[in-house]
Amino acid sequence: MNQHIDKIQKNIEPLRQQIINHKVYGVIKDIEDLKLFMQYHVYAVWDFMSLLKTLQQNLTCTSVPWFPKGYADTRFLINEIVVGEESDVDNFGNRTSHFEIYLDAMDQCGANTEQIHQFISTLLKTNNFKEAFLVSDTPAAAANFVDCTFEIINSDKAYLQAAIFTFGREDLIPNMFISIINDLDKNFPDDISIFKYYLERHIEVDGGHHSHLALQMTAKLCGNNELFWIAAEKATINSLKKRIELWDGVYEAIVNKKQLMTT
């Protein structure tokens, strides 16, 4: 294993454990709690696609005339993940994206999708994130998370984009959360079956094969440039901290809701 990758994995492990063992999972007790979780998390599902498509643009040839670009292994990884994320199958066998499956899951359980739809439609019209966040009343923790991702996207530095993709996004779903969803599904199968499918599909598609290729991608892009590796670790740490802040925001929203219900 690359010594730089070993170093990053060692240094970010405490943050990863904070995410995997975050207290937010312990307060998700019913469908109402899950709705709030999804209303925040959907922004991370959306901006993952933007990060992925940025990598596709930077590491493969997406223009005409076509020319070979970058490493074939990297092209394979990115294109394979794009196919899976953009045009997978839903639980009825219909072609759709993982983001759209997530929206279907929100609709099924009655979560509010107005914010994310308003955010996307405003951004499509204005290309102004601040305005889109304001118009849609996006939660601050979700807006900060998206801003962090797009700061890296707009850096136009593929090695940083690859780093936060590799170390910060792919395998942070804890077994505890899967267990909670399975328990809810037993009692409310008509409300969260699509979300359960989304999680299962996400884990299946983003397995060890992709993780291994992603590590190779980051290693090739950083190469022997020590400054690249230092910057990659810094970007990864910041991205993971923003994920923790996102979960903090969800936790506070759920706890505040419970307190209002008991007063």
Walkthrough of the structure:
With 263 residues, the protein is an all-alpha fold. Helices cover 77% and strands 2% of the residues. The chain contains 12 helices and 2 strands; from the N terminus they run H-H-H-E-E-H-H-H-H-H-H-H-H-H. It has helices at residues 3-20, 31-59, 72-86, 98-109, 114-126, 129-136, 140-153, 158-168, 175-187, 189-205, 208-222, 226-262, and strands at 88-89, 95-96. The protein has a two-stranded antiparallel ribbon with strand order 1-2. A hairpin with a 5-residue loop joins strand 1 (88-89) and strand 2. Helix 2 (31-59) runs antiparallel to helix 8 (158-168) and helix 3 crosses helix 11 (208-222). The chain is globular, with a radius of gyration of 19 Å. The termini are far apart. The mean pLDDT is 92.
What are the main properties of this structure?
2% strand, 263 residues, mainly alpha, 12 helices, two-stranded antiparallel ribbon
Beta-strand share of residues: under 5%
Radius of gyration (CA) equals 19 Å
Number of helices: 12
SSE string: HHHEEHHHHHHHHH
Give me the count of strands: 2
> What's the arrangement of strands in the largest beta sheet?
1-2
The helix/strand class is mainly alpha
Low-confidence stretches: none
Residues in helices, as a percent range:
over 70%
Which geometry do the CA atoms define? globular
Distance N terminus to C terminus?
55 Å
Mean pLDDT: 92
Main beta sheet: strand number and arrangement? 2 strands, antiparallel
